[in-house]
Amino acid sequence: MGYSSIQQDAAAAAAHAQDKLKERGEKLARISQESAELQSESENFANLAQQIAKNMENKRWWKP
C-alpha cells in the first residue's frame, strides 16, 4: 500500500465523517423544530382545556 493510497483512504474517511456530521446536524435541527412544535401544541391544548373547564364550570350544566 503506497503513500498515495493512504492519503486517498484518509481523504475518503474524512469526507465520510464530514457527511455523517452534516446528517447529524440536520437531524438535530429537525428534532429541535419538532420539539418546539410539540411544545407549542401542548400549550395550546392546555389553554383550550382550561377554557373548556372554565366554560363548563360557569354553565353548571350538571345542575338545573
Automatic annotation (TrEMBL):
InterPro entries assigned: V_SNARE_CC
Keywords attached to this entry: Coiled coil
GO CC annotation: cytoplasm
Location of the V-SNARE coiled-coil homology domain: 1-63
UniProt feature coiled coil, ranges: 21-51
Top-level taxon in the UniProt lineage: Eukaryota
Protein known as: V-SNARE coiled-coil homology domain-containing protein
Organism expressing this protein natively: Leersia perrieri
